Amino acid sequence: ADAGFYALIGAAAMLAGVTRMTISLTVIICEVSDDAASLLPLTVTILTAKLVGDLFNASLYDAAIALAGWPYLEHEPPHCFASACAEDVMTADVVDLAEIE
C-alpha cells in the first residue's frame, strides 16, 4: 500500500487516542482523504485507538475540563444515587419567578 495511506491511518489513530472521537473522526478523515475504500481500516484503527486510550487515561477534553475545574456531569451517576428518587432530593417550596407585565 501507499505510504500516504499509512500516514493517514497513523494520524487517525493519534487523533482517536487523544480526543476519543469515533464516528465523527471516521467521517471527517474519510471525507478529507476522498477514499471510500479506506473506511474499514479507518474504522478498525479508530475504534482500537479509542479502546486502548480508554484503558490508560481520560481524553484530552476530559483532562482539560478537570484541570480548569469546570463542573462536569459524568455519564453514570454516583453509586449513592442508584436507589434515590426525585422526591428524595426535591424541596416542597418551589421558587418561581414573577411574570413581568
UniProtKB/TrEMBL annotation:
Instruction: Specify whether Membrane is a keyword of the entry.
Output: yes
| Gene3D superfamilies with a match to the protein in the record | Clc chloride channel
Q: Which GO terms describe its molecular function?
A: chloride transmembrane transporter activity
Which compartments does it reside in?
Membrane
Stored InterPro entries: Cl-channel/antiporter, Cl-channel_core, ClC
Q: Does the record bear RNA-binding in its keywords?
A: no
Report the superkingdom from the record. Answer: Eukaryota
The alphabetized UniProt keywords are: CBS domain, Membrane, Repeat, Transmembrane, Transmembrane helix
Q: Which GO terms describe its cellular component?
A: membrane
The record describes its membrane topology as: Multi-pass membrane protein
**Protein name (record):** Chloride channel protein
